[in-house]
Amino acid sequence: MSAARVFVARLAGCSVFDPAGDKVGRVRDVLIVYRQKEPPRVVGLIVEVPGKRRVFLSIGRVTSIGSGQIITTGLINLRRFEQRGGEVRVIAEVLGRQMELVDGSGTATIEDVAIEERGQGEWAVSELFLRRPKTSASPFAKGVTIFAKWSEVRERSTGEAQSATQLLATYEDLLPADLANALLDLPEQRMLEVAEEMSDERLADVLEEMPESEQVDILGHLDDDRAADVLDQMQPDDAADLIAQLSDERGEALLDLMQPEEADDVRMLLLYAPDTAGGLMTTEPIIVSADTTVAEGLALIRRHELAPALGAAVCVTLPPYEPPTGRFLGMVHFQRMLRYPPMERLGTLLDQKLEPVRASASAAEVARTLASYNLVSLPVVDDNHRLVGVVTIDDVLDYLLPDDWRSHDDDPSPAVSSDTSTIPVVVSSGRRHLNGPSH
Fold first, then answer.
1. What domain of life is recorded for the organism (predicted)?
2. Domains of the chain
3. Do residues 56 and 72 lie in contact, with contact meaning Cβ atoms separated by under 8 Å?
């Protein structure tokens, strides 16, 4: 091995390569098992491979760890990872745990875990990086850090839930969809703890990427005020879909606690059947007047918080400019704006070929229109030709894919390569530990 001792938090996100240099995936966690008289043994890595599938990589298959990358023998079982009894994920379950120092000097929180090679293919926990409680009342103060061997600490017996702060710090750079997948892999109680520690905006982004059943579970563990704040941060169509899964009583209570403008958008969306354009649309497109200039339009679509599909075009209407607007005049695609001088009026650049769909149009009709004209968004109008929203391509994909598409994957057919040193393949019907039980 190129490194005999590494810290687990630094492994998160590291690329995994086969001997030929082809990227296999990224490390998402390290799996250990406790032992009675010795430090925990490392049994393998949890690796995310293409398709967001998380698989188990036995530590015996790892030939090199160093320089921010991991080299394997090229043999990987692509069956989805399932945690077994006695196995513990370091990042998901150990970081942030409160420990007592056996010398009686107090408690400390685990911020990182060092693992080291004890022999060929044998790795174990060697040291803990700990932070003591802060001694200053300042909100910016932090406790001192120390290193300790596993034998020098023991778990607290108070039974209190471990902090999720350190785990969130490890997940800080993940995109919402990847963070949602990471949370779904956690034990339910741990997932709820982490969700409670998130900011409203971050939790809203993550909920939008989760299956509805998990959305409902997480929202069910939040008090009404916090749940309403999170719903305020969600896209109106996603918030409406989530509220539709709740009881009428709680849904109405949360709508009453939401910001009035956000609640009005959600209430309007709840009027439409879920398999119609009105049920699929979002009520927050970019809406401007015909006198708006190209420069102003481009400035609006540059906003970093704007979803790419919503930034692909702007809608031009008569006043008012909030859905339901005045009469819908047309759309201007951003590529067309790029071809004209900054002071050109958007009213002269309307796409005359694009017809909006009615809110009552079926999801199938919306999908056909998007596909036929190679669009990423489609305006939706009411019976009076007032703009009420737009349907984006991701809204349609969410509808067309199976309900469990976020967690669904077809097991690949086993394959055996004549050059197993360079191509990751399925090597058995189940995962197998080094010197351990088959999975």
1. Bacteria
2. 5-155 (no CATH), 175-271 (1.25.60.10), 287-400 (3.10.580.10)
3. no
